[in-house]
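Moderator note: this is an archived Q&A kept for reference. The question asked for a predicted structure of one protein chain; the sequence and the answer are reproduced below.
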Amino acid sequence: MIPTGATFGPAAFMAAWAGGLALTLPVAVRWNVAKRGYQMLGGSVAALLMIYPAVHSWWAAAGLLLLVVAVLRSGRSGYSSLVLPGAVLALISSAMSAGWIAAVAAGAALGGITSTMLLGHWFLVDPTLPRWAVRRLDLLAGAGLVLSLAAGWLNGAAPYDGGVLGWALAALALVSAALVAATWFALGETGYSGVMAATGLSYLGVVTVAGVVFLNHLMA
């Protein structure tokens, strides 16, 4: 649960997002799918997300520095071991404000769906690549979404009490779950159209999952 006095503000939200995204990069590299390009793009997005948290936390500032260096090094070597510690520092920064369960859950949901969308672009170029890699990231997004909702519910963010925010959260959660599921099934379709549909659905999922995570913990 989120400790007393903890807040899941914009800085914690963005740090969790950056940390979750960055944590998927070493995993995708180990799968031997889109090594160099995926790390450079994903690391750059994570670094951009870390700029605002870095203004508010030394942990986040250190994480941002490592991610920037990792992106620069990946341009030459194809992979940088600095990505992992940068991701961990980002999550620590978020957890110090929001608590570990909220930070890890948000990181899994946001990092998973963003990685699904980013990695999907390589499959648009070559639909013959193994789709299980994108499906695993999509599964991570779904698990993170459920965990994030559970963490918020345990801390009082229950939409069942009514109110505009409660109904908005419930609607976003249902839409997000539908998009994550639709992305999974779209990847089961053969040919270019299946990957294209999955990538487009994950685009929408990034927006709705971000809304669920932030609104869920905002209400807590």
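Archived answer notes: The longest helix spans residues 192-218.
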